[in-house]
Amino acid sequence: MSFEVFSLGTSGMMPLPGRFLTSALLRREGELFLFDCGEGTQVSLKLLNLRWKQINSIFISHMHADHVTGLPGLLMLSSQVDRTEPLYIYGPARLADYIESNRKILDMYINYPITVIPVNPGVIIDSEEYYVNCFALKHTKQCFGYSFVEKERPGEFNVEKAINRKVPKGPLWGKLQKGEDVINTEGEVVHPNEILGEKRKGRKFSYVTDTMYFPEISDYVRSSDILFCEAMFSNDLLEDAVSKKHMTASQAAMIARDGEVEKLCLQHYSPRYSDKELKLLLEEAKEVFPETILTRDRMSFEVANHDNP
Question: Worst-scoring range by mean pLDDT, 187-201, 263-277, 284-298?
Answer without folding.
Answer: 187-201
